[in-house]
User: Fold this.
Amino acid sequence: MENKEYGAHIDFKNKDFLLDVVRRCQDGDTKAMEMVYIGYKTSLFNLAYRFARNYSSSKDLLQDIFINIFTHIDGLRAPEAFNSWLYRIAINTCISFVRQKGKAKEVPLDEIENIDYSEEVDHPMRQHLEQAVKILPMKQKTVFLLHDVQGFTHTEIAQITKLSEGTSKSQLFKARMKLKDYLRSTK
Amino acid sequence: MMRCSKARILINDHVDHLLDNRKVQKLEGHLQKCPRCRDLLAEMISMVNGAKQLEIIPPSEDLWPAIRNRIERKHRNVFIRLPEKRPFFGFSLYPARLAYAVSTLLAAIILVSLFYYGLPFIRNGRNDMSKEELDHLKVAEQNYQTAIIDLDKAISDQKAQLSPELAEVFKTNLGIIDDSIRACRVAMGQHRKNRMANLHLLMCYRKKMELLNEIKNVMMQSG
Amino acid sequence: MKIFKSYSSISILIITLLCIPSLLFAKAEEKIERTYTSDRDGKVYLEVKSGDIVVNSWDKNEVKIIASKNDTVDISHTEGNIRIIISRPRSFHYELFIPDKAHLRVETASGRIKAREIGGFGDIRTVSGDIEVVTAKNGIRCKTVSGDIHLEKITGNAELKTTSGKITVEGIEGSIKADTVSGKIEMEEFSHAEEMEIESISGNIKLLGELSSGSIYEINSHSGNVEMRIPSDSNFELRVETFSGNLHCDFEIRVSGKIDRKNIQGIVGKGGASLISSSFSGNIRITKQ
Assistant:
């Protein structure tokens, strides 16, 4: 999975480096934890934002995600599976967060802080799609965000979510059909 | 001629370049004749491309100091580690027998039903159940009763193997559960749709089944 | 009469003298010790038909069993793990020493089991004896029918089950699952639980500890009473329901659903933890520490 788009300048694709960082995190090394934070913060923040549905809740959710990652990291028996394990923790944290908050109020895009949507005038699809993703049920949203937005394959999604590859494909299909119907209705 | 329902699934895979040449040709044959599916393909491609280009939103401030402080506070307390759920040793103590296998299967069906139907009831906050919910509960109740009868039969032949003290403990506790089942039934006589009464009845059935299973295991162990 | 009394005294004396050898024999049953190497974090399994078992840990890569010379002992070794099965018709007092990081599974049909300082996961089962564990560092599972379970200083998850025995826990950091039919359940100083699931038919449940944000606490009782005492600054979402019992909550609740004498649903403080409790006829009380 490519992390380049999210500006990570830490090369977690280097296996030896990744294993070393993970082991140091398991030993409680906060410098190593900070490297994990820097490497994954943007990608996880974007995931959190699309679950939390508003900017300020996303910041709280991102904190919770990293706390859970570093709290449970010494239970990770296979450091080479760190990437899928990390996203599994992130997804589970996001889902718990949404369940606790109940149905969050729909927040109109122009109330969201710190995001300049002036670019959106040229990309109306993006704006509608952001809105549409909010209405997806949890499983469909999870698979859609991981596959179409973040670029994971169905094999990787199966490792992250413990769904089968077949279920991942069918959830993606349902998500896309739902989004397509929503986008048609807003035209 | 391919149906549109099948074509839609192939379109989904085609957008992700997952189809082999044979399926691509079949799909293209359908698309030539079906404008609706052609529109669908175009919409899907546009949507998937749009998703790839969704705004990348950076966190506005550095959250690391707050995260580090919380981690360090946790380290000062005891670090919690949850062991993975895995079978321990895998030693099989009790030989599989038909009645045990059947009742275990029934128990699995019941527990899945209870999870599927039971938990939402507790969290929904409604006092009364709908007719559909009551029907599902009735099926679960019948399954429990069947499992309990099977377990009773499997146990009745082997009663002599329990010590008198243990037999008394089991008898007393089965009596407690049966009293609880009766209390739920009386309550349901007056409030048939009451959620609490129905759920607690199921809970009592489950406990009875678990206790009968325990009796059977103890008998097999001492046999 | 005097003669009869003196004959009786002599008879009693003779009978007593005859019994002494058998008493000595019963007390002085010969013990044997066997020691085996094992991995420091290996698995140790001990199954005893009947007898009390005491387990201690030490900082050696060895397992030691103290049994009776009359026992039939079956031992197998695989890859640093040890399995010991002892059959004997009469009860005996066994001692087991295991490495301080080893995982332990110990079973007896009738007998008490006491264990201290288990470093690995502990799985302890008896039918009619009590179970006592002081300090388990990696989670514990305890199962008994009529015996009591008493735990102190547990780290990691705990899964506890009795039919009529009492469950008492003093000091646990981890998730808890506890289940009984008629036994009481009392837990003090619980914390850091991601999940807590407690169920009883007629036994009363008393809990004293602190809630963790994001965790789920589910306590169900049929006719037993539920009493939960938590810090006064706790934040949680609450749902309590009963069919015919009474409900009481010390905390101020922002109601977010139904509220009546049998049903309360709302948020305390900032929310975060989920506290769900139901009873059929038992009372439910949630009070401040």
